Amino acid sequence: xxxxxxxxxxxxxxxxxxxxxxxxxxxxxxxxxxxxxxxxxxxxxxxxxxxxxxxxxxxxxxxxxxxxxxxxxxxxxxxxxxxxxxxxxxxxxxxxxxxxxxxxxxxxxxxxxxxxxxxxxxxxxxxxxxxxxxxxxxxxxxxxxxxxxxxxxxxxxxxxxxxxxxxxxxxxxxxxxxxxxxxxxxxxxxxxxxxxxxxxxxxxxxxxxxxxxxxxxxxxxxxxxxxxxxxxxxxxxxxxxxxxxxx
Length: 247
Prior knowledge:
Layout: H1 12-20, H2 23-37, H3 46-51, H4 53-62, H5 64-80, H6 86-132, H7 135-146, H8 148-157, H9 163-172, H10 177-187, H11 189-200, H12 203-207, H13 220-246
Helix pairs in contact: 2-6, 4-5, 5-6, 6-9, 6-10, 6-11, 8-10, 8-13
């Protein structure tokens, strides 16, 4: 029997493996295209919530566990696809489940979705970008990774940073998955609770055909409190740098 012939060294398996790493990103892009092509954003609006509030409340009352799973699943997809609607979903969570459980289910969904796009971006582009990065980006990566939890916590707490950007940047800087999950989970709790609290008192507003006035939510006191938490999150980094300078 003839000996097995060696496989041609044309790099075909490596090429296939290289293409496979782009599949998660491709799936996310396809999901975004379908979301806008079918105008699914209309379902993530206060108008849709107002029109279906009685049916939604009845469904939650009769199918509590299923309703929670569906809500978390929708929230996960919305965040993973980086489509508009997370704010409406958070307020809806407070409306349907109360401020505490609404916060809990929203945080779980957001964390899962954020982790999904973080892993997809890191798998597809993270290693390649780091290999091609110059010395300045390498120093930034080392500094960010050294204090990744505190930096991420700061970015999550400050409401001015787009959520999807904060999902992508750590993927390109080599942040560990566990660190990303922990900082995301903790960092989004305060802001999520604020908007879930809005949803808790939304029934009377929707009954009269109105919409929540978010200007009454993001008051100066609330913003100052969130910024103060963010400053506290980076305080260990500041202390560490002062100690280094002294030594």
